[in-house]
Write a structure and sequence with these properties.
Elements: H1 8-26, H2 32-55, H3 81-97, H4 101-129, H5 131-139
Helix pairs in contact: 1-3, 1-4, 2-3, 3-4, 4-5
InterPro entries: Phopholipid_MeTrfase (IPR007318)
GO molecular function: methyltransferase activity
Membrane topology: Multi-pass membrane protein
Length: 144
């Protein structure tokens, strides 16, 4: 049951909640317009990556078995554009509401997602796609 609840998007929601809760403690002034701009960027990267994976008919499940290696579009910028979009959205909330602790939350999210999900995903991709994955991993950074 514990593993069933351990999904990247659950950690993303928790990161947003922590960032949001921190503003009550600090009572700082935010930048709604800057937050909106970052939100649009983060959502755009996230949605584009999801659409590309769906078009390729490969799994979005971080523990699933991939059927295709998606390396074009946003996957030419980051090997993990869905997670990158999440990080940008956490930073957008931090900017929007004036919660600088969101920077630390975002950094913690990067570390957690890398250790809990990305490393295992990369192992599956390497096992499944071999040299194609290795070539892509040499060209494209894990984050940006």
């Amino acid at each position: 049951m514990k593993r069933a609840l351990d999904w990247p998007q659950a950690w993303f929601v928790l990161a947003l909640a922590l960032t949001g809760a921190s503003t009550a403690l600090l009572n700082l002034q935010g930048s709604p317009m800057g937050g909106i701009v970052l939100l649009v960027v983060g959502l755009g990267i996230f949605a584009t990556a999801v659409a590309q994976m769906r078009r390729a008919m490969t799994t979005l499940n971080p523990r699933g078995q991939p059927s295709k290696l998606v390396t074009s579009g946003v996957f030419e910028i980051s090997r993990n554009p869905i997670y990158l979009g999440n990080v940008i959205m956490i930073l957008s909330l931090a900017l929007w509401i004036g919660a600088p602790i969101g920077i630390l939350v975002a950094a913690g999210f990067v570390k957690l997602v890398t250790m809990r999900f990305i490393l295992a995903e990369e192992d599956r991709l390497r096992t499944t796609f071999g040299q194609d994955f290795d070539d892509w991993a040499r060209r494209v950074r894990r984050w940006i």
